Amino acid sequence: MIVDRFENWGQYFHGKVCQFVLSYINELNENSPETEMEPLCGEDIKARVMSYSTKDISEAIFEAHKRYIDIQFTLSGEEGIGWIPEVMAQLHKDYDPENDVGFYRVDTSKINIIKNVPGQFMVLFPGEVHGAGIWLNNTIKSVKKAVVKIDRQVFENSEIE
Q1: pLDDT above 70 (res 161)
Q2: 27: which residues sit within 8 A by CB, 6+ positions away?
Q3: Are 51 and 93 spatial neighbours (Cβ–Cβ below 8 Å)?
Q4: Can you identify the CATH homologous superfamily of domain 2-157?
């Protein structure tokens, strides 16, 4: 997992793939329309813009992926994203390769909550269990955010077609 501000993007990411993703991210703002998951570069890179209200951690859905790396960032509002290593979570719904997701039960007392606010990003790698939309300070907030998914092999090769 990486959490940082967008002005530090270049410290972590180089190459065509990461520049392509950063260009897409820079086009988004709080007025961007919501979308379903849409391809940006075939199935190699895809993205979704969504809105929702935050909730108690007990209502969060925890998941992990095998194929895609998630880059999550808020466009407006704030939320907590819970993170825990996969070895500390219990798979409760088998991995679905078509949707690249497995669902987990977690001990919420062991979850790390990362504050996700505009201007920063969170990168979640395959095998990192995470749950988004968690309220901070027991206060429901409206959030607009985007998730960019990059195929891990494309990310590692830093090449897009």
Answers
A1: no
A2: none
A3: no
A4: YhcH/YjgK/YiaL (2.60.120.370)
